[in-house]
Amino acid sequence: MDILNNREIAIALWLLAISIYIFSSSKMAEVRNAFKGVMAALFVRQIMSVLCLMVAYMAIVIYWLSDLGLWNFEQLKNTVFWCVSVGFISLFKLEKIKRDKHFFKHSIIDNLKLLAILQFVVGVYTFTLWVEVLLVPVLVLLGAMLAIAETDRKHHQVKVFLEYCLSSFGLVLIVYTLYMLITNFGEFGKEKTAYDFFVPPLLTLCYLPFVFFMLVYSTYEQVFVRLRFSIQSRFHRYAAKFYAFILFNVRLSLLERWSFQVAKENIESHSDLIDTFKYIFKVRYSEKNPKEVPKEQGWSPYKAKEFLVNEGMSTGFYNKSFEEEWLASSPMEEFSDGIIPDNIAYYVEGSEDVAKVLKLKVNVNDASRTHQACEKLEAMAEALSISSLNLPLSDGMKSAISGCNSYSEKVEDKTIALIVEHWPNHKFNGFDLKLLISSI
Fold this sequence. Notes:
By secondary structure, the chain is an alpha+beta fold. It has helices at 6-24, 29-42, 45-67, 76-91, 94-99, 103-110, 114-124, 129-149, 156-183, 185-188, 191-230, 234-248, 252-264, 270-288, 301-304, 370-389, 395-403; strands at 319-320, 326-329, 333-334, 343-350, 355-364, 407-411, 414-422, 431-438. α11 (191-230) runs parallel beside α13. It is globular, with a radius of gyration of 28 Å. The mean pLDDT is 83.
């Protein structure tokens, strides 16, 4: 049987050639040193323990699938490729997976999409070896150039051209595949092809429980490390771990929220510890059952924090920041080019039950990008005004934003203000723009 197809052989040949050059050329000394550093970091005990645990788990899965007749030895190559491309990589992306609330659902759906099926069918037939050897560096180069072009709007035309080239090649592959299906269907109709199609998605499906377990384990480990600095008493620390596991179990967002709340408190007694858990469940209940807030007082904080969700700006939890002050904020979203891009964030400020100030803040790190920053602020401010006041921005406010001038106006029982603050002695004349909608 053919272990590798022509495309895989071509990739292997190029990797071998590059490896020989790196490990033999005097010009590649720094690359070799960097590679040694990466390997040294990879083979630390903690990482190797996790990888060995993953291999053991997948070995059990493969034995089980083989016993059911869903895996055979011909799938060894696909299984090894899957372990490297999906299994290992997933373990290094746990933090990203944690932030993606729909990761597990998407992991299943992505394997069932028409595009995934099309990619598999197209990959069944390969060109002759010399054609594949020529294609590999060309496609890698095009992909790398496209990735670079996407980072800067100045290269938009180059990006369009590269996308056209890759799309054209994709069309050629589809036409070639259709031709081969008609003239050489026997290659596609083999039993091995069916195994090649369903084994990788099946491995992914069986792997998800392990990923979930590692996600839970790593989150608890991080939280318990933070507790060493948050709670001085060893007894209260052990009690905190026990209560956290019993009360939060696999609800990781609540667990992390609780750990950050503990860091703000001074835990000196058992009742202080219990209060942190009461606080989390109290605010959780408030989020699920938000109180109605009179219009003249402000907004429900749990509704206000969602005002810009459709614009891609979602805040974190609404939490107590000081004595009677509560706050929710979004991550800084970068929206411009350059070494230090400009960014924007959304804040909700108020008391426990009432949001009194909605704030958009733009950090303009280079005055030459002022126009782009003002356009971004105006678009977000328009969306916020409609969501919070059911009114579009006034012409006066739009003019102030486009002109980058401080401005304030009354809209019914609310105040909308634009504050421009220039940073003294900044190399690129940077400044920040704050747009506030408040009931104060």
